[in-house]
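User: My instructor asked us to take a sequence, write out its structure as tokens, and then describe one feature of it. I'm not sure where to start. Here is the sequence I was given:
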Amino acid sequence: MSKKGSYQNINGLLLLDKPAGISSNQALQKVKKIFNAKKAGHTGSLDPIATGMLPICFGETTKVAHFLLNNDKGYLVTAKFGVSTTTGDREGEILETKSTSTLSQEIIINALESFKGRYDQTAPLYSALKYEGRPLYYYARKGIEVPRKTRTVEIYSIKFESFESDILRFHVMCSKGTYIRSLVEDVAKKIDSVAHIQELRRTHFAWFKEDDMSSLENVENDNNKTLDDKLLPSDEVLKEYDSVYLDKDSANDIKYGRRVSFDSIPSTKIVRIYDEKDELIAIGEVVEEENYLQPKRVFIKD
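Assistant: Let's start with the prediction itself. The structure tokens for your sequence are:
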């Protein structure tokens, strides 16, 4: 692969450590330019103030990007108590201030612990959830109040790290759709306080961990070979699904979008389909009632 010249047909997944100060789309465009990639997209957007794991899919891997969206995420959260803002983070205007003189480490830890499990969470005013076709932040910027949906999210673990000078740091593992800004505000409300996010870092996404990430600086400075080495295959996005291996004739049918008979029943309804060369050729769906395998996404070879 060359950094210069015509666009390249690149396939794979890059786990970018997004820096603060740029949007997820800006990070995507920078990386796409570095790789001279013909096609790329990101999944699981991060706010401009946030850092950490931003999965960027290239080429055929974009066909499986949505499979990541349903997975759990982990964050390191830094929140300031005693001040609430319009956006729920440090970039918003101050809404309210409260004394934090009665807060203690014990009170904070108990509040955090109380949010373990499932709870109903209301989306922040400044979010991309839509109301009548427009994102909520559109109305928020105009000062228009609109109904906000409440949805059930799950906090798998929440680990206190420190509370000093009104600054709380904690780690959280949560389900998809969890708004950390809302979580911080809800924790504060639980103890009759207010708070907002100062820093947010995504440390986990699905089964990927912090050590799997590549910084934007390293990607910019690496040579061609090292850039290739940073890309993970599409299989890595689909690790939670069973694998099915087909003979040449059946694999060819799948490649052309035709369903094939299938006797063995995997444990997952969605499966990874490999050809006789053990190459991933498609994502398929098992239709048990009729004993066949239906391709859902077929990968095109360069």
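For the description part of your assignment, you could build on this observation: The chain has three domains: 12-70+208-236, 73-204, 241-298. Try explaining in your own words what that tells you about the chain.
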